[in-house]
Fold these 4 entries.
Entry 1:
Amino acid sequence: AQKITQTQPGMFVQEKEAVTLDCTYDTSDPSYGLFWYKQPSSGEMIFLIYQGSYDQQNATEGRYSLNFQKARKSANLVISASQLGDSAMYFCAMREGRNRGSTLGRLYFGRGTQLTVWP
Amino acid sequence: ETGVTQTPRHLVMGMTNKKSLKCEQHLGHNAMYWYKQSAKKPLELMFVYSLEERVENNSVPSRFSPECPNSSHLFLHLHTLQPEDSALYLCASSHSSGDSNEKLFFGSGTQLSVL
């Protein structure tokens, strides 16, 4: 089974509007972390935001916020006031709890969503 | 200077060539990783080094050979590759706490084409 599912291969949004990128995850581990990364055409994966499974509040980082719905196992990324520079590939990822030596560094990634911001 | 630097940015090689990818991190991390990003697949973890010791080899063919001489440098040695090995190879680093909130810092990748 897929650990991370991103159902939107592509999304379009007009500049200055908000956009939501969907992500659902699958784990039986009570302790896990959820990440969003941005990958522009240059190739570098840029960390955007993190949400821990025990965090009571949704994470926010500037224009990025994470809509964390634990019961539904979803961790959608909301980008407010989109900018042309936001056009990129966006990846949702998950790491399960510690004390699992074999999972050090094992970030499970989704297939990504290509976001295009138009003027 | 960026935190994680990869060279070369682009590489074209024949199936009989031997080449190496290099990764260097300036973040004081003690864990380093190689990921493969193909066009039609999610990112695949290839190798993990923690404190210069390989802790994971994710069923990667032996034509890929990693080397981690110290906590700041990571290499991926390539030999007799196949066309299906063409992909973006990403290096990443992190602290090796193993905590679920440990985020990875990535380089810009090496775009590899095997002819």
Entry 2:
Amino acid sequence: KNEVEQSPQNLTAQEGEFITINCSYSVGISALHWLQQHPGGGIVSLFMLSSGKKKHGRLIATINIQEKHSSLHITASHPRDSAVYICAGLTLYSGGGADGLTFGKGTHLIIQP
Amino acid sequence: DVKVTQSSRYLVKRTGEKVFLECVQDMDHENMFWYRQDPGLGLRLIYFSYDVKMKEKGDIPEGYSVSREKKERFSLILESASTNQTSMYLCASSWLLAYEQYFGPGTRLTVT
């Protein structure tokens, strides 16, 4: 069974701090999806990556395939970044099919002014 | 922009009622998904569909069924609602299974 472990579970930081959220995943997962969920429920896709690094504004996602590890970084954090961040692993099969996402339990991030 | 909409944001139903949750996407996506989200358990896949009239069970299909008669619409059905089905239900869609998923706003269902 595929597994995705996220850490930390909760993170409180001051505005301006550099934030790192970590995600480790099991063999069989080929790509990682980072999601953001604000209070109220809406989920937004941030990144999907299977190698290297992606950047969007103050958000950076990296993945190390050998170590089966991905990180989400937030630079110059702001109170509006407060949300739950979820990583999810996707399994791709050689025949072209894929499985549904396997989700981590999420990291609850609070950025204080 | 991809838009995924769900029929209700909040729903209250009684035990034993049949409940329909509808999801519509406007980007001609092949794949649609239903998840439930519970505190401490994260998101769990109930069912997904990779084509009209095609469906696959996810991790927790018991007590649920689905229907996909048209490509843009994916319905989740609770045949006889129970209190342990009180949860946030999220629908998502994607172009291909390997592509990122786009989520709807969620339906918070309470079964009393």
Entry 3:
Amino acid sequence: DTEVTQTPKHLVMGMTNKKSLKCEQHMGHRAMYWYKQKAKKPPELMFVYSYEKLSINESVPSRFSPECPNSSLLNLHLHALQPEDSALYLCASSQDTGFEKLFFGSGTQLSVL
Amino acid sequence: GENVEQHPSTLSVQEGDSAVIKCTYSDSASNYFPWYKQELGKRPQLIIDIRSNVGEKKDQRIAVTLNKTAKHFSLHITETQPEDSAVYFCAANFNKFYFGSGTKLNVKP
């Protein structure tokens, strides 16, 4: 299995909702990432987990809360989002933590109303 | 932090022609340079990468060259095909990934 799987593919939520994005990989990778991508822009790093521990938080607002339950799973909990948070949320993984050979999931297209 | 500049922002070529996309980086400690292809509505896919101890790498119609002295690296696509149409991102790593701003490549049949 050489895939990073993300669910759901699309999500529409109101500003008062709580939702979660899920990401799974079975490649034995030890680093997992959350990126945010706006249309026509490059991906922006949000969080990095290394060996199931949060190693980088790019000053992301607390309405985004990451969680790594085990080495294969990564979640992003969303609460009280703003319309400007609407974007494609990409999960990625890599063998090690040196930011090399990142494999991306297909993303969750999030719309906040 | 690292700064990666990518040019051009858009590139239109005729099918069968070559395409070249260039990136420059600022931090000489960067040691890994990948290229990602992203089709509309899809995930970024790693198409080729190069490490700082190598000057050139080829994979069929795709090649990447790296000039460490000048701190720039380039993606070369030969014999372009319509399915090469996509947005291409370069990146450099120094503690973390820094992406270029992207190049939208359009290959006209």
Entry 4:
Amino acid sequence: QKEVEQDPGPLSVPEGAIVSLNCTYSNSAFQYFMWYRQYSRKGPELLMYTYSSGNKEDGRFTAQVDKSSKYISLFIRDSQPSDSATYLCAMSGTGRRALTFGSGTRLQVQP
Amino acid sequence: DTEVTQTPKHLVMGMTNKKSLKCEQHMGHRAMYWYKQKAKKPPELMFVYSYEKLSINESVPSRFSPECPNSSLLNLHLHALQPEDSALYLCASSQGGEAPNLFFGSGTQLSVL
């Protein structure tokens, strides 16, 4: 079993839809949770960063962490064609600086 | 300046060549990273430098040799690579300490012939 599981998609939605992206994980030591957006042949761009459980909102993006269920989510409101990209969840525990990535979900927003 | 700059953006090299990838950041970050990413796969960690010292080496073959000349610069020296080493090589930096939120460069797309 992988430490971090993420549905690879592709996920196709119409413009304006609410998008829900999710990851599950098995390592209870994970404390830091991140979402990255990656366009083709470009480096990942940090979208959201959360420490421990809870919600965080930034514009059209909301990140949720439920440590009791080992489940994290990213919601995108009013999705735009420019949101079409691969979304990677990533997480890390205390004492280890390196990230463990999910496999990425490819999102397509249709105009 | 919130950028991590990588050069070159594209590199084609033969198996007998020696080349170097360069990375620069001016955010005052004290940790720098090299990742390798194959198509449709997540990034894989290669090396971590913390305060200019190599702190993690993920059992990377010796044909990849990292170097951190100062806190703003990170190099990856390449020698005698194999075609399967063709990938996107990503540099990243973070503040150091506990917070591991990494900022990535755009990467170097490497092709080994």
